[in-house]
Amino acid sequence: MKFSHKNRKIGYTYGSLSGVFSFRGEKSISFESSLERDLLRVLEFNESVIDVIEQPFTIEYINKNNRPTTYTPDFLVNFATSQSSWQTIPDPKPLIIEVKPRRKIIKDFDKLRPKFRVGLRFAKENDMNYRIYDESRIRTLEFKNINFLSQYKRREYDTFEEIRIIQHLKDIGHTSIDYLLAHLYVTKEERGIALAQIWHLISVKKLGCDIGRPLNQSTTIWLNIDQSYLEGVYYDD
Length: 237
What we know:
Residues 138-211 form the TnsA endonuclease C-terminal domain. The protein has 237 residues and is an alpha+beta fold.
């Protein structure tokens, strides 16, 4: 098999949504469907992901009719080599991802299977992993939680209250949201405002939680910023 690098050109695809995704404000990544866009949202939130490349290369191979053909996977995901404080890295090898709706996989499986096999073989030969992602792997509880948190990400909150929340977690470590609210706030209104601020702090990664579990006031949270950040931002005289 041969392969070459390829730049994606986005065009109109009937029945799909295409566009450009701003990945962490650092780069633009093209997508050709809402399913690809939703995957990018999940990858962006995952701290172990350090880079995503769309249509990273084209693999040349000979099909069953002995004719040359090509296969271009959708994404290549690169991971950090160390584990983050709140998201595990099951395997730090680069991951090749093919995104397909489940109905299309079922309908066109005989046509798609040779490409999937080529992708898997290419990954093994190059010390990578290969995965096919449909809705069941993308639109999970984690994805729903990320969407929920996104509404709080760009809101502005009281800096003093942020300091109180972060200092409390610095002192006690892991705790439930319920416990933190009960310890720091008296009225229902104060707790409601503080809860929204906690969602904001999770969305911007200052607080951590298990994003793959239901988010509610029983959720355990912890500090997700290092000591130098605390000293530089909150305690710098």
